[in-house]
Write a structure and sequence with these properties.
Elements (H helix, E strand, L loop, with lengths): L13 E6 L5 H13 L6 E6 L20 E2 L2 H5 L3 E7 L7 H8 L2 H6 L6 E8 L6 H14 L3 E2 L8 H4 L9 E4 L10 H25 L2
Parallel strand pairs: 1-2, 1-4, 2-3, 4-5, 5-6, 5-7
Helix pairs in contact: 1-7
Length: 212
């Protein structure tokens, strides 16, 4: 039997902006993406993060972070209308805390809870050619297994051809610099907001079609 997503209109009015940030650059991007989501009438952004992982087998992080977004739960993911997923680059891949979180989502996969929902990715790196595109595409793979619809950035966004730092057709990106001191550029910011706005709009369209 083919799995299908069960989308409740009452519960699916938000786009989940789920990220991990070590030094703050990815968090800033998440906030800009959330701003873009909320440009779409009828959709809100829900910012969530994940705890760090450690070789220590005992829990070391508090249940609620001292600052920033709270930790994501399975229910946050289950009931979202769309997802924007962000990580700093770690050797051309997503950071381990996000990989660990994804590994716990097999129940959602079994239920088909995320099928036909839109997803986009974003990342930040220390250097201009620090593995942004491999990270963005790699982050998409688990969500394709969940049956989600992957969305990049179309070239109708002028920032893709003007940027001298981050910004790719595969997702939003930022070059933070080796000391994380680079501010998010105007083009990077615009592309972050456009990703949020696009996923917000698609979440409405796809949810509406699922309820027909």
């Amino acid at each position: 039997m083919t799995k299908s997503a069960s989308i409740s209109p009452e519960l699916s009015k938000y786009v989940l902006v789920l990220y991990y940030s070590r030094h703050g650059a990815t968090e800033k991007m998440a906030q800009m993406i959330a701003h873009g989501v909320e440009k779409v009438e009828g959709v809100e952004a829900r910012l969530r993060t994940v705890p760090a992982v450690s070789s220590n087998t005992q829990a070391t992080d508090p249940a609620v972070p001292d600052k920033g977004a709270i930790y994501c739960t399975e229910e946050d993911l289950r009931h979202c209308a769309g997802l924007v997923f962000g990580s700093p680059t770690r050797f051309g891949q997503m950071a381990s805390p996000l990989r660990y979180f994804i590994d716990q989502t097999s129940g959602l996969w079994t239920a088909g809870a995320l099928i036909d929902k839109p997803v986009a990715t974003f990342t930040s790196t220390a250097s201009l050619h620090g593995g942004q595109e491999s990270t963005l595409l790699g982050m998409a793979l688990p969500w394709l297994h969940h049956g989600m619809i992957y969305c990049g950035i179309p070239y109708s966004e002028a920032g893709l051809t003007k940027t001298r730092s981050g910004g790719t057709p595969y997702g939003a990106s930022h070059v933070a610099g080796s000391d994380n001191a680079n501010p998010v550029s105007e083009e990077e910011r615009d592309l972050c907001e456009s990703v949020g706005q696009r996923i917000g709009g698609l979440s409405l369209t796809l949810r509406s079609n699922s309820n027909k």
